[in-house]
Amino acid sequence: MTTNQLVQEIKKKKSFLCIGLDVDLNKIPEHLLQEEDPIFAFNKAIIDATHHLCVAYKPNTAFYEAYGLKGWKSLERTIHYLNKNHPKIFTIADAKRGDIGNTSTMYAKAFLEDLAFDSVTVAPYMGKDSVEPFLTFKDKHTILLALTSNQGAFDFQTKTIDGKELYKQVLEISKTWENSKNLMYVVGATKAEFLADIRQIIPESFLLVPGVGAQGGNLQEVCKYGMNSQIGLLINSSRGIIYASKEKDFAEAAAIKAEELQKQMAVELDCHSKS
Amino acid sequence: MTTNQLVQEIKKKKSFLCIGLDVDLNKIPEHLLQEEDPIFAFNKAIIDATHHLCVAYKPNTAFYEAYGLKGWKSLERTIHYLNKNHPKIFTIADAKRGDIGNTSTMYAKAFLEDLAFDSVTVAPYMGKDSVEPFLTFKDKHTILLALTSNQGAFDFQTKTIDGKELYKQVLEISKTWENSKNLMYVVGATKAEFLADIRQIIPESFLLVPGVGAQGGNLQEVCKYGMNSQIGLLINSSRGIIYASKEKDFAEAAAIKAEELQKQMAVELDCHSKS
C-alpha cells in the first residue's frame, strides 16, 4: 500500500485509528476457548465488528509466538483474512526486529513478502545496515522505533548523544538511509509534548503512536503537535478496545470503544481541514 | 543451566565455541531438500557431527521465521532435539527481541519456558522495563546487545552519550536492573580492541562474541582482551562452520572447521590456566 492510499482511507473513514491485535488467551471470552483456533476466532470477530472504524490493524508478534506453532498459524490466518477481505486496511507486523544485514533480509521477507504485511516495526540499535534491507520493498513501510511509550524510554532514548537526544539522532540519521521515504516512526503518546520537536526533524513522515488510552496518552495533544498536512498519524489502541468486554458481546463492545475514538478523530480531522 | 555448569562444560570440552544454526535453504546440500524437514535434517546432522566440539548452539530465529509455519516447526524440533540429547549444551535463541513490559513477558515465556532455550538475545533500546521480564527466569540468561559486529554499530552504539559511548551506558545501566546477574552481553569480535574497556565495566559477565571468521574477527585478540577468571566467553561461528561444504560430506566438513576452532580455543584455555 502506498502512503497516499493510506491517507485517502483516513480521509474517507474519518479515522486514523489502528487497532492492536494483542491476543492473550487469558483475557478473551471463555466461550471462544472451545474454538479450534481461539485467537483467530477472536481476531475475526473484532475485525468484522471494527473494520469500518479503523484504517490499520497491528498484531504484536509476541502474543502469537507465545503460543508456538499454533500462534504462528493464528497470525497467518489473521493476516490472510485481512488481506483477502480488507485489502485497503493498512497492516502492521509489530515485531520490533533488527539484525545484521543478511538476517534482516530474512525477517523482511518473512513479514513483508510471505505474510504480506504492509509494514513491520524495527529497532534502530544496530544501525543502518540492519534497517536498510527492510526499506527495499516497494510500497512497503518500515516503522522504526524512535521514542517508545514505556518508562524504559528514558533509560537510553532521551539521553543526550553528541548534543542531541538519542531518539532525535535516530530520526535524523535514518533520514539519510537508502529508500528512507519508506520509513515511518514509533512515537509514544505518553510523550506528546516531544512531538513538536519531532515534527521539526521529520515533518512529512507518518508516526505510529501507541499509548493512547491504557498507557495514559491524550489524543488531542497528539493531534495538536503531531498532525501534518497529510495527517501523518496512526493512533494505536489495543487493550482499551479489544478487551472492552470479556462476555459474548466482546466484539460489539470493542466496536463501541473504537467508535468513541473514531468520533474524536473525526473532530480532529474536521478542525484540521479547516485550519 | 547455571553459569557455573557452562564454565564446567567449557573446561571439560576445552572449547568455548558456539555454533550458529542459521539455516538458509539456498545454502544447504541439495540432497537434503528431498527430506520432509530439510532444515531439521541439516541441523541434526550438524549437531551429531559437532556436539563434542562446542558448548553452545545458537539458531537465529530470522532464518526459521522466513519459512513461516514450517520454519517454526523446524526450530521446535531443533531445540527439542538438543534438550533431549545434549542437555549440557547451552542453547541460545538469537531473537533480538524487546518490547514493552507485558509483551516482553510473552517473548520470554515463548523462548525460555515453552521452547526451553537456556537464553535469548534481547535489544536494549526500550530500556529497563523491556528487559527485566526476561531476567526473572531462574537459571536462564538474557544476552543483551551491547556492541554488535556489523558496520551499523557505529551509527548509534559508539556515539558518546553523557560523556560515554552508548554501548558502555548500556553495560553500566543494565547492571543496575533487577536480576542483572542473569545478563550476558553481545560484543562483536570485529571490535576486539574495545574488549579491554568493556571488561572494566563488566569483569564477571559472559560475552557472546559473533564475528570471528566470516566477519573478520580474530580469536587471539578476543581472548587476550575478553577472557576472565571464569573464561567468560562464548565465541560464535555460523557460516564458517555450517557451510564448509555443500556436498554430502557437509557435516564432516563442519566438524573439521569446528575442530580447528576448538583446538585454537584449547591452546588459549591452556595459556590462560597457566597465567
From TrEMBL, chains A, B:
Q: Which reaction is recorded as catalysed by this protein? A: orotidine 5'-phosphate + H(+) = UMP + CO2
Q: Which UniProt keywords apply?
A: Decarboxylase, Lyase, Pyrimidine biosynthesis
Active site per UniProt: 96 (proton donor)
Q: What is its EC number?
A: 4.1.1.23
State which pathway it belongs to: Pyrimidine metabolism; UMP biosynthesis via de novo pathway; UMP from orotate: step 2/2
All copies of the Orotidine 5'-phosphate decarboxylase domain together span 16-254
Spell out the Pfam families in the cross-references.
OMPdecase (PF00215)
GO terms, molecular function: orotidine-5'-phosphate decarboxylase activity
Q: Which family does it belong to?
A: Belongs to the OMP decarboxylase family. Type 2 subfamily.
Record's HAMAP family? Answer: OMPdecase_type2
Q: What is this protein called?
A: Orotidine 5'-phosphate decarboxylase
In its UniProt entry, the species of origin is given as Jejuia spongiicola
Query: Which gene is annotated as encoding this protein in its UniProt record?
Result: pyrF
